[in-house]
Write a structure and sequence with these properties.
two-stranded parallel sheet; 4-stranded antiparallel beta sheet
């Protein structure tokens, strides 16, 4: 388990190092300088107490206090500079997060549609998207804390061992107990996040109904708001109960550790006090040892608590890696290219299909031929499988039985991306993006005047060129007011016309409406 945890966190660190080497270097410097406060609190306090009891003069006191003051201020300035070194650290962290999201966005394009029908996979996918960009920074933060703790532990153990090594036993006992408690605590926290994701997705969907413009008319005309609010309350209460359960579990673990910490401190104080009464250590030694032991206990607890946190990171990293390492069956472009940019015949040969969540087959033993130049209408009652048939034609799904062939060759032998270039498609729901006219039609940025001419011709073909003529900034006008007040809002029919223009400009040999 721990080997797997280490490998996962190293994987994430390597990812961070690609984009934030300087940031990592600064974190190491920060960790080294974190030792200074420990030295000031232990050695200088010892020297100060012993000097006072020994009857030193004010010059000696001034020197001791000044050394501590200068060391603390210098350390504070250096660490403050490292943390707030300007936009360098923040910019690098931003780059790490940005690349993390870009990788997930690119990968999501290659996840087979069938996985969106699986709630468990979709929850895991959502968890990876929500956690990935922050998790990489959290791994770096945990490593920084771990290195700081290591430097502090080495320093404090050296000091304590020189004066009275038996004091180390108090800190070690508490560290071992906290390690086992922390491991159980991390498992509970991960389980909570896993369950919470399901409720959060549900809550966000229900809230989105009120915020999403697509639902605005429906809510007002049919007054579904009371139903949605009641559903939201049910989910919110379930989420609340989960949080209460989580809170009780965390209270149990935290109370155990805090109680043992106080007992440990009391035992250590009694032991050191007895040693001072017996004149086996000086008052300065008592102060230094108590401060050192308290700090050592704190650093050891932090140190062992990093491992459950690393374990927790590892559980989330597993989700991230599963998405990154996902091997697509359909969205895989490693197969051979189509021999031509057209076709003569596409054939459904005894095709059957069932969704993973459905009890029976949606399509059964379908045989159909589409010849070049044919105009075919697929007609049927609701639920007959018309949309499913189109999904199989576009290879969004694969048949469970039979096969789809293009010019006698099964389509799964060719690159899916290559195969789909044969189709210009206008789906039932015409999706319009909050981007410009040109982006919505061309689906990329305009590179030349020829591109602009092609877009205008496509809009003319679809009968919506008048919108461009009247638009303030022509093809650059956004088709939404969501991010730009100069944008325009299209009617339902106009949205379909944009989708038709999008299919037309593709100039594909087969058009699916």
């Amino acid at each position: 388990m721990w080997l797997h945890t280490i490998k996962n966190n190293i994987f994430m660190l390597k990812y961070a190092l690609k984009f934030a080497k300087f940031n990592v270097f600064q974190r190491i410097i920060y960790s080294i300088f974190s030792v200074v406060p420990s030295l000031v609190n232990v050695l200088l306090v010892k020297a100060l107490v012993d000097s006072i009891i020994g009857g030193c003069n004010w010059q000696t006191l001034l020197i001791i206090v000044s050394i501590g003051c200068v060391a603390s201020i210098a350390t504070s300035l250096i660490n403050s500079y490292i943390i707030n070194v300007g936009n360098i650290i923040k910019f690098q962290i931003f780059i790490v997060k940005q690349n993390m999201q870009e990788n997930l966005m690119k990968k999501s394009r290659n996840i087979d549609m069938i996985n969106y029908d699986d709630p468990k996979f979709y929850d895991k996918y959502t968890l990876a998207l929500n956690e990935a960009e922050n998790r990489v920074v959290q791994v770096m933060d945990t490593c920084t804390a771990l290195i700081s703790d290591i430097f502090n532990i080495i320093t404090l153990v050296t000091i304590i061992s020189y004066i009275n090594p038996l004091v180390l036993l108090f800190s070690i006992i508490l560290m071992v107990i906290d390690f086992f408690v922390g491991s159980k605590k991390s498992k509970v926290q991960y389980k909570y996040r896993e369950e919470a994701t399901k409720y959060e997705r549900n809550k966000n969907y229900l809230k989105g109904i009120f915020y999403n413009k697509n639902y605005a008319n429906e809510i007002r005309v049919n007054d579904i708001s009371n139903l949605v609010i009641s559903k939201f309350k049910v989910v919110a209460n379930l989420f609340l109960n989960l949080n209460v359960k989580q809170g009780k579990a965390m209270t149990k673990y935290d109370t155990t550790v805090n109680s043992l910490t106080w007992i440990n401190s009391a035992g250590m104080m009694f032991y050191l006090g007895t040693m001072a009464l017996l004149k086996k250590i000086s008052i300065g030694d008592f102060s230094a040892m108590f401060n050192a032991a308290q700090q050592l206990t704190h650093n050891l607890l932090n140190f062992v608590n990093q491992f459950p946190v690393f374990y927790q990171h590892s559980l989330f990293i597993d989700n991230f890696k599963e998405i990154l390492n996902y091997n697509s069956v359909i969205e895989n472009d490693d197969r051979e290219k189509l021999p031509t940019e057209s076709f003569n015949k596409i054939k459904f040969d005894n095709v059957s299909f069932a969704y993973a969540t459905s009890e029976g087959k949606v399509l059964q033993n379908v045989n159909m031929e589409i010849n070049k130049g044919d105009k075919i209408a697929i007609v049927g009652i609701n639920g007959a499988g018309k949309t499913t048939l189109i999904k199989l034609l576009l290879r969004l799904y694969d048949p469970v039985e039979g096969q789809v062939l293009i010019d006698g060759v099964p389509i799964n032998q060719y690159s899916t991306n290559d195969y789909r270039k044969l189709f210009g498609s206008v789906m039932q729901e015409s999706l319009i993006y909050a981007l410009s006219f040109s982006n919505n039609v061309l689906l990329r940025d305009v590179d030349s005047n020829q591109d602009a001419e092609r877009i205008f011709n496509a809009l003319t073909f679809a009968g919506i060129d008048y919108k461009v003529t009247n638009a303030a900034t022509s093809l650059d006008t956004p088709l939404s007011k969501e991010f730009d007040t100069n944008g325009i809002v299209l009617s339902g029919g106009e949205k379909q016309k944009i989708a038709i223009a999008r299919a037309y400009i593709k100039n594909a040999p087969l058009l699916v409406l």
